[in-house]
Amino acid sequence: MRMRALAVTAALLLAACAAFRAQKQQQVRADASEHKNLQVLPSNIKHDELIATMRGFARALGTRCDHCHVENPPGSKERFNFASDAKKEKNVARTMIRMTRAINTEYLPLVDTKVQKVACITCHLGHLEPPPPPPPPAPAEGATPPKS
Predict the structure, then answer these.
(1) In this structure, is residue 15 part of a structural domain?
(2) CB atoms inside a 10 Å sphere around CB 64
(3) What are 81's strand-pairing partners?
(4) Which CATH number does the domain housing residue 102 bear?
(5) How far is CA 81 from CA 63, 65, 143, 148, in A?
(6) Burial class for 68, CB neighbours closer than 10 Å (0-12, 13-18, 19+)
(7) Residue 124, domain extent
(8) Domain tally for the chain?
(9) Across the chain, where does the E strand assignment appear?
(10) Residue 121: which of 98, 96, 141 has the closest Cα?
(11) Phi, psi for residue 71 in degrees, rounded to 5
(12) Which residues pair with 80 in a beta bridge?
C-alpha cells in the first residue's frame, strides 16, 4: 500500500512538472518582430512589458484599448489593429508620452532632487480630461486679500 501511494505521488509530481513546463513555454511571446509601428516605446519591448504599459495608460486615463486603437471587423483574428494610426487619440497619446519624458528628463532634474517622476496619472487622475484644480481656499474672516 505504501509503495502504491509513493508511485501515485511520484506520478502526480511528474504530471504537475510537465503541466508547469508546458504552461511556461506558452507564456513566451514574440519580441519586436511582433510589434508594428512603435514610435515612442522601445522597438525591443517585451510583450508582457508592452501590455503592462498599455494597461497603465488605460488606468491613468480611465479608458480602454478602443480609445486609441481601431477595432478590426468582427471575425478577425485580432480584435484591434494596433499598428493603425487612424485615430487621432493615438497621436495625442504619443505627444503626451514625449511631453512626460521631456518633463522627467529635462525639467525635473533642474528643480527636484527627490527623483520624483511625472506620469499620465499625475494630471489625468483616472480621467480622459484632467480634472480642474480645486478652487482656492476662501480667505479667513477679517483677512485682507492678497494684492495681485
Answers:
(1) no
(2) 10
(3) 70
(4) 1.10.468.10
(5) 17, 11, 59, 52
(6) buried
(7) 40-131
(8) 1
(9) 70-71, 80-81
(10) 96
(11) -80, 140
(12) 71
DSSP H helices, 27-107, are 47-61, 88-102
Which DSSP helix (H) or strand (E) runs through 62?
Answer: none
Closest CA to 63 of 121, 142, 107, 132: 121
Torsion from C-alpha of 133, 138, 139, 142, nearest 10 degrees:
180
Q: Is residue 104 part of a domain?
A: yes
pLDDT digits (tens, 9 = 90+) for 34-90: 789 999 999 999 999 999 999 999 999 999 999 999 999 999 999 999 999 999 999
DSSP 8-state class, residue 118: -
Q: Which residue has the cell 497603465?
A: 56
Backbone torsions φ then ψ of 8, nearest 5 degrees: -65, -45
Tell me whether residue 35 is in a domain: no
| 134 CB-side CA count, 13 A | 3
Query: Residue 15 has what pLDDT?
Result: 54
In a domain, 95, yes or no: yes
Give the total residue count for the chain. 148
Instruction: Please name which of 132, 120, 134, 117 lies closest in space to residue 62, comparing C-alpha atoms.
Output: 120
pLDDT in tens, 32-46: 457 899 999 999 999
Reported pTM: 0.68
